[in-house]
Amino acid sequence: MFTSMNPRDTFAQLGSIFGGLMFFWAIFQQYFPYPVRNYIEKYTHRLVNYVYPYIQVRFNEFTGERLMRSEAYSAIQNYLSANTSMQAKRLKADVVKKTQSLVLSMDDHEEVADEYKGVKLWWASGKNTPKTQSLSFYPVSDERRYYKLTFHKRHRDLIIGPYLKHVLKEGKAIKVRNRQRKLYTNNGAYWSHVVFEHPASFQTLAMEPERKKEIIDDLIAFSKAEDFYARIGRAWKRGYLLYGPPGTGKSTMIAAMANLLNYDIYDLELTAVKDNTELRRLLIETSSKSVIVIEDIDCSLELTGQRKKEKKKEKKKEDDQEQEGKEESKEKSSKEEKDGKSSQVTLSGLLNFIDGLWSACGGERIIVFTTNYKEKLDPALIRKGRMDKHIELSYCGFEAFKVLAKNYLCLDEHDFFPRIRTLLGETKITPADVAEHLMPKTIFGDAEVSLKSLIKGLEMVKEEEEKKKAEEDEAKKKELLEKEEAKDGKPNHDQGKVQSG
């Protein structure tokens, strides 16, 4: 019948049908009793669900009474922004706080497709605006945004289980990667922070390539080992002890670790912590994906593990000073004793902080101790399980120098390199001292001038070391000669003078 009608008549007839349906629906909503309408709508939905093979899941932006933003909504937003939003024709752009990077996301009422293990599904963004607007001197938006996921019902188990877990995990990981990293320090039991923008990296770190690769592999393996640590029943953390002379790059190594793994840094000052309870509170307030640092741990331990011994020494010292009547020294000692009582952190509390029960609160943490004197540390503090990896940062070798020359002078080779290699093998100089010589000496940054400065500095260090060694050898010979004379019973010159007198 419709084939013999012209298009105008066909559309007119379809319009009449739709108009009749709308009129009937209005009469149905207006005059039919609620129980009847409810009964009809229930079976109508069942009929539609039987014919329509797709399932829809809705994720609202706010949960409860809109007091908190849904974590699931935020994770889905991050996931879609990174993975599927480029399909959308209309996007929203936002700037991450205090950075210049743009974040794109789907605009309202847009739909994009996604695929998971060969199964296709669809994400749609939407918002609901209430029909009645409230008047207020402080107006707030009543728009309720949401994401709607649509997929075929035969894939229910795959989508509801593994796929949504994948979306939430990936969305949280994207949030961590895009976050603004921070450097924390403690004031008593509270953390304060600044933006962490240290440029150090393993690429610019003055160290042998083989050792750098070993450390990088260890860090990356740790960051991806969540399931492994859960399987073996250990807290997801790892300890690193960095030791070596001053100026060998321990702090730079910590910054490179944080930049490699995209972690925050918590610089813990033990002397500012009142007691073990405050130390435990600080640990609980640290976040996952962080590096907890205690620098110069050997100096901090003098105020913790050896506290009783130090108090006895101070007490004896005070008694001696009182007998001698030295008022100034006595006041100084009293002040030191008073300051010592301001912190009651113990070695036991520090050990529990590292790997006790409370250390399992949170995960993916790296704990770093630095020291100039490893031999001064208590063996219980640096045993395996607490400080899992010991990294010695020593004096500058030729491979480390080549990294510095590349960083500072953009040089891979030079005629002076053989001479520098020889001098570095004969002297002990820190990377910090080498870097100071390589700093540009003129506005034009002449590389040859910097290398000559380094050679001159190395030669001076070599002369000083040789002179010091000669003096030590002379002192040893003199001490040996005195011992031999004493053994033979021959008086030395001083004894002869006393006898003649």
From TrEMBL:
SMART domains named among the record's database cross-references: AAA
Disordered: annotated span: 308-341, 463-501
Transmembrane segments: 12-32
Keyword Transmembrane helix attributed: yes
GO molecular function: ATP binding; ATP hydrolysis activity
Superkingdom field: Eukaryota
Annotated signal sequence range: none
Keywords associated with the record: ATP-binding, Hydrolase, Magnesium, Membrane, Nucleotide-binding, Transmembrane, Transmembrane helix
Alphabetized InterPro entries for the sequence: AAA+_ATPase, AAA_N_dom, At3g28540-like_C, ATPase_AAA_core, ATPase_AAA_CS, Mitochondrial_chaperone_BCS1, P-loop_NTPase
One of the GO BP terms on file: response to stress
Gene3D superfamilies for the chain: 6.10.280.40, P-loop containing nucleotide triphosphate hydrolases
Protein's recorded name: AAA+ ATPase domain-containing protein
